[in-house]
Amino acid sequence: MARRTITLIPGDGIGPEVAAAAVRVLSATGLDLEWETVPAGAGAIGEHGSPLPDHVLESIRRTKVALKGPTETPVGTGHRSVNVELRKRLDLFANLRPVRSLPGVKSRYEGVDLVVVRENTEDLYSGLEHVVVPGVVESLKIITERASARIARFAFEHARAHGRQRVTAVHKANIMKLSDGLFLECCRAAAKGYPDVRYDEMIVDNASMQLVLDPTRFDVLLLPNLYGDIVSDLCAGLVGGLGMAPGANLGEELAVFEAVHGSAPDIAGKNRANPIALVLSASLMLDHLSEGDAARRVRAAVDAVLSGGEKMTPDLGGTAGTTEVAEAIASHLAGPAGG
Ligand code: ATP
């Protein structure tokens, strides 16, 4: 392929370590990638006065694709969350989080292979909260037909494009009859356009229990923002924890790929962070860039390293460092089996 320029946001905490690991792995794919590194998060405030400087948005609008480490937004400084701002300002309306069992990783389940599709722009993340009278606060849950129909269509399109059989809309419309009711109406309307994909619905509390009982029963989960946030962390826990969970934020034209985990300040700077979540996010990015073959090779190299069982970070019970795991994945990619 021709040279591709990608915006790289190392971020805060373990961000720079896992970002460097992902860049190292991608360099072993042989693709011609150029990284445009821009600062965002708590670390950007000192120099730029904002955790999300304008040139970060400008860079992503130009390159159309970013790989992002976790960012912190210090509480009480008046700055809004970098993630919420990025998703809103770039209209990254879909959050995609594939969850699959990985070889060699201790987990109670085998054969998990599902995708969480989370609406990314509204719901209780609209930031509309106020004090009604002292001692009483109100937080507004915004659900619109436009955003719900768009995410529903996205989920069905994703299912069709990836050979998935079933979309399950997750809701609490028995209580939130109007807001979650509208979300469900939009999901049902979208389902009619995809007769080849099965459609069903599940109340979020029941869905949480069913996921813990048997996650292999699920295929594509379609959720409004808040339930999507909670259920995707739950799903990450089903297959080995946050160190393994990749994600993508997608808009009509722009895309930002990032792991589900946060900046993990407790292990930052210690070469202990598991880089696999961001490496797998980078493989989703390669799929998005129509580099499916390289994407598959990255996933196969991750599987090979995990199956080997030697190069595991402490969260997986091993003693290997972030850099060692990245090197091991990169050498699998560069070796005869990976190349
Ligand atoms: P945020 O609110 O920013 O999402 P958080 O407070 O939910 O962040 P994380 O920063 O994701 O939390 O960390 C939660 C726990 O998981 C911490 O103990 C952290 O060390 C661990 N953790 C997170 N990411 C990783 C990783 N890549 N490798 C190893 N451990 C991780």
Structural class: alpha/beta
Helix content range: 40-55%
Coarse morphology: globular
- CA distance, first residue to last residue: 16 Å
Give the radius of gyration. 20 Å
Structure description:
This protein is an alpha/beta fold. The protein has 11 helices and 12 strands. The protein has helices at 15-27, 42-48, 54-63, 82-89, 145-161, 179-192, 204-213, 225-238, 276-288, 292-308, 322-334, and strands spanning 4-9, 33-37, 65-68, 94-100, 113-119, 129-133, 136-139, 166-171, 198-203, 220-223, 248-250, 255-258. Helix 9 (276-288) runs antiparallel to helix 10 and helix 10 packs across helix 11 (322-334). The structure holds adenosine-5'-triphosphate. Residues 14, 70, 242-243, 261-264, 266-267, 273-274, 277, 315 line the site of adenosine-5'-triphosphate (ATP).
Main features:
single chain, 339 residues, alpha/beta, 10-stranded mixed beta sheet, two-stranded antiparallel ribbon, 11 helices, 40% helix, globular, binds adenosine-5'-triphosphate
Short recap of the structure:
The protein has 339 residues and is of the alpha/beta class. It has helices at residues 15-27, 42-48, 54-63, 82-89, 145-161, 179-192, 204-213, 225-238, 276-288, 292-308, 322-334; strands at 4-9, 33-37, 65-68, 94-100, 113-119, 129-133, 136-139, 166-171, 198-203, 220-223, 248-250, 255-258. The structure holds adenosine-5'-triphosphate.
